[in-house]
Amino acid sequence: MQIYFFIYTIGCQMNVNESDILSEALSNYGLLKSKTVDKANLIIINTCSVREHAEHKAFSLFGRLTQQYKQSKIVVIGCMAEYLEQIIKQRFKDIDLIISQRYNNMQSVASKIIKILYINSNIPLLTTTIQKQNNNKIVNYITIIKGCSNYCAYCIVPFVKGNEQSLEYNDILKECTLMVTNGTREIVLLGQNVNAYNNNSINFSTLIKNIAKIKDLLRIRFMTNHPKDFTDELIQTIASTAKVCTNIHLPMQSASNKILHNMNRQYDYEYYVNLINKLRNSISNINITTDIIVGFPNETEKDFYETLDAIKYIKFGKIYVFKYSPRRFTYASKFIDNVSYYDKQKRHIKILEEAKKISSKIITDMVGSNQEILIESYINNTLEGKTKHGYKVLLSNKYNINLGKIINVKITGIKGTSLISNKIV
Ligand code: SAH
Ligand code: SF4
Ligand code: F3S
Predict the structure, then answer these.
(1) Which atom of ligand 1 lies at the shortest distance from residue 292's CA?
(2) Which ligand number lies closest to the CA of residue 81?
(3) Which label site among 132, 243, 329, 339 has the fewest CB atoms less than 10 Å from its CB?
């Protein structure tokens, strides 16, 4: 019987990447990826625990899928599988398998899934053991650091993913080379804290300089960065390595030194602004984006306005704002969650409004400028690419350009948060 699978992915880019690798691994066993969940006899949910909202989303999916697809095998992986296995099993008896991938790579996750699918018949043979081929993916992702050892007071990641572990330099270089041979032109390096990379004294700067040497690779991006690990060497490396893209995600979380201290972020606002200035003075066409948490315990109006003022001053390209959500195991879960939901909501909206004003001005100011874009995809007569500093550009395909090429275009308009161009320069 032909088995079709469907994967739901909640959470960060690393989860998206792991779902991709799992997809590849299951395909290597002869399973087919289904476009709709209705057709799937195997449904996988890749979960996230970072906020309560993400867990609720998964719980409601478990409820709906176990009701609606009784004939299908249902598998749960991801961060919730790390510590909620018993609760999930008790509440959803129809879930067939829960796998923690902290101790399993995606290849072994796939083989565990295969075992439950073929209980009474022969397990199909692997057609290939390559973990991630990703043929013809113009933009491809690779995790270079697993876990995190920073223990920010609010964050569950170190508890579900374990301590920070930099992957082997030689393996990363080999995989990147293979991706480029298979058609990749942009590689995105992933980690909770990529800029802390260190493997046998090869640091992040050396890693990106050496990846940049791969022939035919055009671009390197990376995320996420911790401000405390952003060295001058790294700033110089980005400034002097042409292939390195210039969108830098640098979570600030708050601008109040009291809150930053209580969050255990290991920097203060002055350090953060100084870093922003150094980045902007050294790297041209830089787009700095950030994460903000509102309503951390004891965040007063005054603390909040410090953050809002900082946002007005720094002018981030994009801001991801989150309402503080107490998480099990974390240090902050011992504090009383004493900012009311109403206040969190109010602060959340205020930051979003300000962020929108700033980002639309930045985007509008780009109209008329020339930008270098890498063409990534082609949908309905429109080519889609990204600028070096991370903005999406839609280009009409009257030019007939191949995917994976870098071209210079003039930005002629905007559509939502994307830029539009109808002119190559
Ligand atoms: N290591 C990365 C990713 C962490 S999770 C980083 O440092 O950026 C992504 C974002 O989720 C964090 O930056 C933070 O803003 C937010 N976040 C993490 N835990 C949270 C919590 N308990 N409540 C609200 N937001 C949270
Ligand atoms: Fe969480 Fe902090 Fe680690 Fe980011 S750096 S994953 S916020 S502990
Ligand atoms: Fe979520 Fe786990 Fe990523 S908690 S943000 S999926 S590391």
Answers:
(1) 15
(2) 3
(3) 329
Q: 255 in helix, strand or coil?
A: coil
Whether residues 225 and 358 fall in one domain: yes
Whether 21 is in the pocket of ligand 3, judged by its Cβ within 6 Å, is no
Give 224 Cα–ligand 2 centroid separation in angstroms. 9
Which residues have a Cβ under 8 Å from the Cβ of 33 and sit 6 or more positions away? 4, 5, 6, 23, 26, 27
Q: Return the ligand 2 atom nearest residue 226 CA.
A: 5
Confidence check: pLDDT of 120 > 50: yes
Domains in the chain: how many in total? Answer: 3
Residue in 231, 345, 254 with CA at minimum distance from that of residue 302: 254
The model carries a pTM of 0.94
Could you list the beta-strand ranges (E) of 125-213: 139-143, 145-146, 165-166, 186-190, 198-199, 202-203
Around Cβ 338, how many Cβ atoms within 10 Å?
11
Cβ of 332 below 6 Å from ligand 1 = no
Are 222 and 352 in the same domain? yes
pLDDT in tens, 171-223: 999 999 999 999 999 999 999 999 999 999 999 999 999 999 999 999 999 99
**Domain span at residue 379?**
370-424
Residue by residue, DSSP assigns 313-347 as HH--SEEEEEE----TTSGGGGS---S-HHHHHHH
